[in-house]
Design goal:
With about 230 residues, the protein is of the alpha/beta class. The protein has a single domain (about 1-225), classed as 3-Layer(aba) Sandwich (Rossmann fold), CATH 3.40.50. The chain is about 35% helix and about 10% strand. It is built from nine helices and five strands; from the N terminus they run ββαβαβαααβαααα. The chain has helices spanning about 20-25, 45-55, 80-95, 105-115, 120, 150-160, 185-195, 200-205, 225, and strands at about 1-5, 10, 30-35, 70-75, 145. A hairpin with a 4-residue loop joins strand 1 and strand 2. The chain is globular, with a radius of gyration of 18 Å. Residues about 225-230 have low confidence and may be disordered.
């Protein structure tokens, strides 16, 4: 997560959505704040942030000069089937956890995720993307949700609203960035991943057959979507 007091924005870093690249560009701007950012959680949700801000605001020494709930909150989402392959490739290449040794294939990874393998279901990246961007019953949820498939166009919209001109390098790319994710799937596996990320499929217009969304969000997250998370 990146918070900036000068330009008054909160960037929610959804895992495997070009967030490392965007965060690197945003973090270099003047006004980047560390007062509200969790040092223990790289992929903090807007709900996590809202709860922590509310708790801190009740304390006598709270910084009332930072009306963080009025900041522009935004983030990016990605085709869930493409993203699931990217998650798997990252785990295989970076090997951040010893448990990955027991995962012999992409199919094995998907099936164990669907079966509720604790270490897999505990990964931030396995959570539905909408969970990072929505705050049930609150108006402080993401004011803009973009698509990585339309990254430059959607980021230009955010930049204009903030009065910025951002250049985003591509960082932290796994090996499947230019490959056809569909080649990794059987019909059954595609259905399983669709079920795992059903909230994202419904909210953001994604289908298995095409990487770009059939129905773009590229704007505010509707209140009705946030209410479904309760």
């Amino acid at each position: 997560m990146v918070i900036n007091d000068r330009y008054r924005f909160v960037f929610a870093h959804v895992p495997k959505t070009a967030g490392t690249s965007i965060a690197a560009a945003l973090g270099s701007l003047d006004g980047t704040s560390h007062r509200w950012v969790s040092s223990a959680m790289k992929h903090e949700t807007l709900l996590d942030l809202s709860a922590r801000v509310s708790q801190r605001s009740d304390q006598p020494d709270s910084d009332s000069a930072v009306p963080i709930e009025s900041y522009l909150a935004f983030g990016f989402v990605r085709n869930p089937w493409d993203r699931m392959v990217s998650i798997y490739r990252y785990l295989q290449e970076a090997r951040p956890r010893p448990e990955i040794q027991a995962i012999t294939s992409f199919e094995c990874f998907v099936r164990r995720a669907a079966e509720g393998e604790p270490w897999i279901r505990g990964l931030h990246s396995i959570r539905p993307q909408i969970a990072f961007l929505a705050i049930p019953t609150r108006s402080t949820q993401a004011a803009f949700v973009g698509h990585t498939e339309h990254l430059l166009e959607d980021l230009a919209v955010v930049s204009k609203r903030l009065g910025l001109s951002l250049s985003v390098p591509h960082l932290n790319a796994s090996s499947n960035r230019t490959s056809d994710y569909r080649a990794e799937y059987t019909d059954t596996l595609a259905e399983v991943v669709g079920d795992l990320f059903a909230p994202d499929v419904k909210a953001f217009g994604y289908t298995f057959d095409a990487r770009p969304p059939a129905r773009r969000c590229s704007g505010p997250l509707p209140d009705v979507i946030a209410e479904r998370l309760q």
